[in-house]
Write a structure and sequence with these properties.
About 40% of the residues lie in helices and about 15% in strands. The chain has helices at about 15-30, 45-55, 60-70, 75-85, 95-110, 110-125, 175-185, 195-200, 205-215, 235-245, 265-270, 305-335, 345-350; strands spanning about 5-10, 35-40, 130, 140-145, 150, 160-165, 185-190, 215-220, 255-260, 285-290. With about 350 residues, the protein is α/β, with parallel strands linked by helices. It has a seven-stranded parallel sheet, with helices on both faces. The two termini are about 25 Å apart. It has a domain at about 5-40 and about 130-320: CofD-like domains (Rossmann fold), CATH 3.40.50. The chain is globular and about 50 Å long. Helix 5 crosses helix 6.
């Protein structure tokens, strides 16, 4: 029996959990044998995560909690409990139980990476969830007009972003992050906010370099919609161009873009808030993988997690076959150019 396909997702926000849930469903249905790992940003500064960071000096826990829940048993009472959010509770208002549990485990262990693993055991997670770094990092952005803002929650201004960076700069990755990237069969960047969910992971020490060195297929899942104050007017090609800047030379094999149109009501709601469907360029500079991936009958624009997971597995296998074929062809050329007396044993055997 072939070993399971090793899939590593990189991101945060609400996008990465959608992908993880789709991948887990493939496994639960018996369609695929997958080894799933999530590498998740921990630089959120808003909402419950931001409040807990300020109160307890803990790295952002919200995106981590969402990914743990996505890979756990959806029918479990404990999973539902971790997703529960307090309301009308004064100091606890808006906090989720899962965020509080992660914060408590951090205080008990004194190590954020260990706290996440303890939470994974508690929820019986089917996969591995890794914070990209254990440090409590702050995401900063500089805009084309020269303005600089600090804090992930504040990175929404009506001006193009010039660059983003973390403080402290180039933080150390959590144990297991670089090894997961090295061992992966396919690495999936996104879906998720380009500057605030995907790129922060690439600013962690060694991550971009590991993605460049790995033999894994590298796929980027483009957001369904542009985001006001972050990717206004961005096409699919614009997303890829920015991403390449932070990948430091790492190749992107394919860009996945949705082709399904949003319903009138959904489109109007997003248009009113300054969002538009991400357009597809004629030339992305990478292979375009276009498919209808919008989940229907949703209040918000969301990827269909199961359809996305199936597409990623299929694309990964296609690219791996292409890479193997290319390597075999290159080896045949090398063998043909060698003289009969210097042909290596491997060539003779073939």
């Amino acid at each position: 029996m072939a070993p399971p396909l090793k899939v590593v997702g990189i991101g945060g926000g609400t996008g990465l959990p959608v992908l993880l849930s789709g991948l887990k469903t493939l496994v639960d249905l018996g369609e695929e044998r997958l080894d799933i790992t999530a590498i998740v940003t921990a630089s959120d500064s808003g909402g419950s995560s931001g409040s807990l960071r300020r109160a307890l000096n803990v790295p952002a826990v919200g995106d981590i909690r969402n990914c743990l829940v996505a890979l756990s048993d959806s029918k479990s009472l404990l999973t539902a409990l971790c997703s529960h959010r307090f309301s009308n509770a004064n100091e606890l208002d808006g906090h989720s139980v899962g965020n509080l549990v992660l914060s408590a485990l951090y205080q008990m262990s004194g190590n954020f990476c260990e706290a996440v693993q303890l939470a994974a055991r508690l929820l019986d997670v089917n996969g591995v969830v890794l914070p990209s770094t254990a440090l409590s990092t702050v995401l900063n952005a500089e805009y084309e007009d020269g303005t600089v803002v600090s804090g992930e929650a504040n990175i929404t201004r009506p001006a193009p972003i010039r660059r983003v960076w973390l403080e402290p700069a180039i933080p150390m990755p959590c144990p297991g992050v670089l090894q997961a990237l090295t061992d992966a069969d396919v690495i999936v960047l996104g879906p998720g906010s380009l500057y605030t969910s995907v790129i922060p992971n690439l600013l962690v020490g060694g991550v971009s370099e590991a993605i460049r060195r790995t033999r894994a297929v590298r796929l980027y899942v483009c957001n369904l919609m542009t985001q006001p104050g972050e990717t206004d007017g961005y096409s699919g090609g614009d997303h890829v161009t920015v991403l390449r800047r932070y990948l430091k030379g790492a190749r992107i094999d394919g860009c996945i873009i949705n082709t399904a149109s949003a319903g009138t009501g959904l489109a109007n709601r997003y248009s009113a808030s300054g969002c538009e469907v991400v357009s597809t360029d004629e030339d992305l500079g990478v292979e375009l993988i276009a498919a209808p991936l919008l989940k229907t009958d949703e209040v918000k624009a969301r990827h269909d997690g199961l359809a996305l997971a199936r597409l990623i597995v299929s694309a990964a296998r296609g690219f791996r076959h292409e890479h193997r074929t290319r390597r075999e062809a290159e080896w045949e050329v090398i063998c043909a150019e060698l003289s009969a007396t210097s042909v290596p044993e491997k060539c003779r055997a073939s």
